[in-house]
Amino acid sequence: TDPRAGLQSSGINAEYGGIGNDGVLSDEIKVANQRIFENAYDTIFMATETGQLVPRSISVDLEPTVCDEVRTGDLGNLFHPDQIISGKEDAANCYARGFYTLGHSMMESVMEQVRRQAEACDRLQSFFVFHSFGGGTGSGFMSLLMDSVASEYNKKSRLACAIYPSPRIATAIVEPYNAVLLTHTSMENMDVVFLMDNEAMYRICRARLNIERPSYNNINQLIAQVASCITCSLRFSGALNVDLSEFQTNLVPFPRIHYPVSAMGPIRTPEQAYHENITCSKITEQAFSQDNLFLQCVPSRGRYMACGLLYRGDVMPSDVNTAISNIKQKRDVQFVSWCPTGFKVGINHRQPVTVPGSENAITNSSVCVLSNNTAIGEAWEVLDQKFDKLWNKRAFVHWYVNECMEEGEFSEARENLAHLEEDYHSAFQMGKDDVDDDDGASTATGFY
Description:
The chain has helices at 5-16, 27-32, 34-44, 64-72, 95-119, 136-152, 175-189, 198-209, 216-235, 244-251, 270-275, 280-287, 317-328, 376-392, 397-401, 408-433, and strands spanning 45-47, 53-55, 59-61, 84-86, 126-132, 157-164, 192-197, 261-265, 304-313, 343-348, 365-373, 445-447. The longest helix has 26 residues, at 408-433. The radius of gyration is 21 Å and the shape is globular. Helix 7 packs across helix 16 (408-433) and helix 12 (280-287) packs across helix 13. By secondary structure, it is α/β, with parallel strands linked by helices. It contains 16 helices and 12 strands.
């Protein structure tokens, strides 16, 4: 539902190296890369009779401003006009407007495009969604849309990269309401949700990339890098490829605890890359650093329940084994006792690239860490505390009630979040009971 998904596609666009902003592939590139990129094109793009490659994506917003930016921007000719859908009225940061009133008026046209895209696939594997927790469209309409998708395609995986409310930075006062209501529905409708927050990505841009005043464009470029790593195995062959369905199997120990966080390594400027040498162990250590985490939480306060390592570029399995052995020696990387295999590893030899205009340097190898840690429960606690301060005074509730929403839904959603906090706390206690005298992480490495 994020209209700025065009930026994510631009990252993939660059990765294929040769697809123009209008989706046309030159004859020279087509002949030179036919063997390497044949499957890669089919995964993310659909070829037309004229040879244009059209992304298999749908961009939706309840108001036209951002969608118009995509239509009139550099990538406007890349997308099919019918796949950029916008309404005429904003959700006004209100979950109820996106879910009950304005959202329903657009649902049929959006679902029609979803069905067309699904029917055009030879083998539909999953749905990948970019959205925010705090906005009216990203929370309300997203919930309504995924209700319909889960009903019609209940056997297909549903994954999301979601912008979680930051601890100290907010774009709307009612953000806690929207986030809690969305989380209440996403527990049933989503299989895996990769949490990110703007404050953590601002920190990465300032500390790692020396960007004094990061913009949303810089943040979207980081998100594009993660999305590229997650979907890399679908597009390029590798020594140990990881299917999207395997994320759900390996990162979600319990159905409700399906909110892993992401991190990447290396993240550095071209100037730093020129003077530094990187190894598999170094990029792995950097990816496990809290400074590279895309969510504001402290992993060392909790225990890892599952961890996926997605390597790209010049990486050998023996180097990965050494890197994981080094990580196991770190006292701040501890796994729960009931997880017999700590790591799920994927290796793809396709060299990583960066989004055009990115401040992040191009490297020969990289790693994306997707981890499910009990410390994420702290982020839910902060969100619930913000919700309680508003809800105790019934502040701003009338805006939701005026949009056909009942007050009882707030209480029901808050109670569900309280149970989610308990789930994380129980997982931490179960993992702590048997490892008080243990040195740290699990002893097995998950090669599949």
